[in-house]
Amino acid sequence: MLEPSLKPNDRKAKMLIGIFSVVVFLLVALMGRFHFAPELPFNVHIFAKANGVINSVVSFLLIAALVAVKQKKYLLHKRIMLGAMLLSILFLVCYISHHLLSAETRFGDMNHDGILDEFEKANCGRLRFVYYAILGTHIVLASLILPFILFTAYRGLTAEYEKHKKLTRITWPIWLYVSITGVVVYLMISPYY
């Protein structure tokens, strides 16, 4: 096992993780109320594409980290997980940028007018329900997983490995689900950008 990278200080960690988690949650929740439409020299949906790529890489890293820890390659596991966390921060920046700079995209809106008419609804058929089911679970779990990710990382970095393993059993599958469904949501909605 690895030596601790951080000294345990649960009170300070809980406070910082709580503040960061609440700030991110509120930022994401409130950004739907704000929209900027500046004339930009590039397609703002590049941020959505970047998020699809980032989520794909994070999914791969989460699986690679599991393999590494099962093989008792703890330093490799730590590096991979820190990479996944850094990419998740980049994801958050791209996500906020995309949603602040682009108009809302509706699944099935073929003419990009922001209105889903009966023809467009019929054209999508039941795929709309599949999309919204995936999107709904993705959003709910994504909004809940951040403090778990941070506490799991904290327990690993403080070498509290039993607590780390216990949290990982909850955190890892949800984080993997959120990252994979993020890619699926992007692939399903991208034709309507």
Could you characterize the architecture of this molecule?
The protein is mainly α and 193 residues long. It is built from six helices and no strands.
TL;DR?
With 193 residues, the chain is mostly helical. Helix content is 73%, strand content 0%. It is elongated, with a radius of gyration of 19 Å.
Q: Secondary-structure blueprint of this entry?
A:
Layout: H1 10-30, H2 46-70, H3 74-101, H4 118-124, H5 127-157, H6 161-189
Helix pairs in contact: 1-5, 2-3, 2-6, 3-5, 5-6
Mean pLDDT metric: 93
Kindly estimate the percentage of residues that lie in beta strands according to DSSP.
under 5%
Helix content: over 70%
Provide a count of the helices. Answer: 6
Runs in which pLDDT lies below 50 for 5 or more consecutive residues are none
Output the radius of gyration.
Answer: 19 Å
Give the helices and strands as they follow along the chain: HHHHHH
Distance, first to last CA? 47 Å
Structural classification: mainly alpha
Number of strands: 0
Highlighted features:
mainly alpha, single chain, 193 residues
